[in-house]
């Protein structure tokens, strides 16, 4: 944590299979003062995933209770499953002076951007980054290599990716994905620049 700079909220998005999870892991490894905002989901855990570490796994009723209580900073239905970020999960960490990184779909980013217009605390912290694939062919290959989806599901995700790419211009930054190391270096540069913005830097006392 940099005591001379106010905390930032990096919100990273990419099409499904675009590499945002890997990039988040790289940034967290490089920046010990940054933490990941954990998302709630109604989908079942995948092999090796742990509740409270990878996601907060909720049943549909518990998820809907949080929606009704307006506890989510953003939430959405993605491929038939609920995903949401608790406001407390993000704002509590920022208020503790921690930089936070969130990995969200384009829908979720748009919701947070809209809320930031009415919330000065959120607006001051928010930085949005879109990780774009170098080509649709590369994205297709990545989705196939994951081995998580049937061909029909892959086509569905590619169709959604084309719509998501059309929203890239609404983000503060765009990284066209290269190697894992290149993507991490570019993200590190974005974080460093944002930490040095004049509205976030606290000058020392010169008395």
Tell me the span between the first and last alpha carbons.
25 Å
Unreliable stretches, pLDDT < 50, 5 or more residues?
A: none
Secondary-structure-based class equals alpha/beta
Q: What value does the average pLDDT take?
A: 90
- Strand proportion: 15-25%
Biggest beta-sheet profile: 5 strands, parallel
Helix content: 40-55%
Q: What is the H/E order?
A: EHEEEHEEHEHHEHHEH
- According to DSSP, the number of beta strands is 9
Spatial order of the strands in the main sheet?
A: 2-7-1-8-9
Rg (CA only): 17 Å
The 3D shape can be described as globular
Tally of DSSP helical segments: 8
Describe the protein's architecture and organization.
There is one protein chain. This protein is of the alpha/beta class and 207 residues long. 43% of the residues lie in helices and 20% in strands. The protein is built from 8 helices and 9 strands. The strands form 2 sheets. It has a 5-stranded parallel β-sheet, with helices on both faces. A 4-stranded mixed β-sheet has the order 4-3-6-5. Strand 5 and strand 6 form a beta hairpin.
């Amino acid at each position: 944590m940099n005591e001379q700079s106010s905390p930032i909220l990096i919100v990273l998005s990419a099409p499904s299979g675009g590499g945002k999870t890997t990039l988040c892991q790289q940034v967290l490894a490089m920046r010990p003062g940054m933490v990941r905002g954990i998302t709630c989901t109604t989908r079942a855990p995948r092999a090796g995933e742990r509740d409270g570490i990878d996601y907060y796994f909720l049943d549909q009723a518990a998820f809907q209770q949080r929606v009704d209580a307006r506890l989510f900073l953003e939430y959405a239905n993605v491929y038939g499953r609920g995903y949401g970020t608790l406001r407390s999960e993000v704002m509590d960490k920022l208020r503790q002076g921690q930089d936070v990184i969130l990995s969200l779909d384009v829908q979720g980013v748009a919701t947070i951007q809209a809320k930031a217009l009415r919330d000065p605390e959120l607006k001051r912290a928010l930085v949005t980054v879109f990780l774009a694939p170098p080509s649709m062919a590369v994205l297709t290959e990545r989705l196939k290599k994951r081995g998580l989806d049937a061909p029909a599901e892959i086509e569905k995700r590619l169709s959604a990716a084309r719509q998501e790419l059309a929203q890239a211009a609404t983000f503060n930054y765009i990284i066209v994905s290269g190697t894992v190391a290149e993507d991490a270096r570019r993200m590190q540069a974005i974080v460093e620049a944002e930490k040095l913005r004049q509205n976030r830097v606290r000058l020392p006392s010169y008395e």
